[in-house]
Each structure stands twice: as structure tokens, then as C-alpha cells.
Request: fold
Amino acid sequence: MSNSSTYRMRVKENFRMTDPACQDEVVQLTLETKNRLAVQTFQAGQYVRIAIPGLQDPAPGYFAIASSPEDSEAYEFFVKNSGALSQYLCNIQAGAELAIEGPMGKGFDLESHKGCDVYLIGVGTGIAPLRSVWRHLIQHRSDYGKVHIYAGFLSSLHQLLTDELEELADHNIEVSTTLEMGHDNWDGPIGYVQHALESDKPNSSNAIACLAGMNVMVDACTETLQQLGFDESRILLNY
Reply:
């Protein structure tokens, strides 16, 4: 299959990630090939175009792959229920088919930055392509220096992958989680991820930063990183 062609994949699994009490629903959608052969190879940070077979409405959408490039069995995605297509995907059942195009996009070029410290910065479902990165880094941990993830969420009810993020300490990966809305039992940073960056002042001398999320967040974090000495060539985007 060519990476530029459209092909069918089947829903393997679909489950809710956000707390049931959270008004914003986010699901993890897992797709496998119809014949259960290996999925197309991709670079961490790439995305695919997902469409409903035979329908033009709702229009197709683009979703970053959240699984590891080393996982050849399936693609995983984080889908927020925020529009007609995402609502359909949040309610889709196992066994249903979807039309896929890709993987596409430049992704994050990690190969040319071996030996560097790596900072992953994202908010909400923007951590999907970053999850692909950190799962790749786990497989190649000795090739890189310090790895630190800055993840931001609106509130504790909106947090994703809490257990997985905690377990990253076993792989010598540091995690800083920031909530925009704190609570009485929250002792972590409150505000935006750029505030956590300003507080920590990561060393830019031999480091790269991978950003993913809303444009306003990417712009704010880019400005903060540049103030901390990160050259533009070392601030990586996946699109």
C-alpha cells in the first residue's frame, strides 16, 4: 500500500480516556488492518486522514498517531468529541471500517538529534504525537540524553494517561503536569505549560524541543523556548 493511497482499516478498540464526570469526552481509538497484517510504517509525530467510507459529510479529518513507530500491529489515536466526525468516531463500534490516507506530514526528526536532551511539550489531545515520540525514545533510550515531558490539561478531570506518565520514571523520563484549573489536593504547577518552562529554565545547550497542541500554546511555548536560548532549528513541529 502506498502512503498516499486511501485504504480501509478496522476498529479494534474504542474506549473513553477522560474521567466519566468530565464534560469533554476523549477516547482512545485503535485501528488495525483488515487482514491484520502490519500497519504502514511511520515516523513519530506523523498523522493520517480519516474518513467515513462512502460519505462526504461529515468531512474527513486529520489525527496524529499516538502509538509507537515500533508497534506494527495497530495505530492508536486520541479523539476529542468536538465536531461531527469526532462525535462519530467517539461512538464507533469495534469491527466498523474507516477510510485512511497516510501516514503523512514531516513528523519529528529525532534521528538527526541523537545525543541531545529532548523536551516534549503538549496540551490536551496534543500529547498524542508526543506519546508516539516518548514510546519511540523508550526503545532507543541510550541514544538520547535527558528526556522531560511537559503536559498540560484544563483540570484533573481532563487528564490523560495519568498512570502511563507516572510509569515513565522507570525509563528515566521526567514528567511535569500542569493544570490550568488546580484543586485543593493538587500540588503540581497551575497555569500554562509555558509557565512551567519559565520556572524550570531547561538547558538549551544540547537540546531539542518537540511541540504539539493548539496554535496559541505552540506560539507561547516557542517564544518562551527562544527566550531560554533554544535556536529555531531546535524547536520541532510535526507539521
Remarks:
- The radius of gyration is 18 Å.
- DSSP finds five helices and eleven strands in the chain.
- Residues 38 and 73 are 5 Å apart (CA to CA).
- The chain has two domains: 6-104, 111-237.
